């Protein structure tokens, strides 16, 4: 039983967060402390929307360039 508990403890220790994850969590907690939970959620949603808009814009440009390349050939 004790040996099984030791193995579980070792497995638990191996499954820790990466340094980057810990830094990100610390940053989010500081942001939440400063601006509140709802403002933090809104900021994350806004940044995600900007990223999605940029990806859609880049896909549209790729499609337009691909089509214009087909026409000129």
From TrEMBL:
It comes from the Bacteria. This is Uncharacterized protein. It comes from Haemophilus parahaemolyticus.
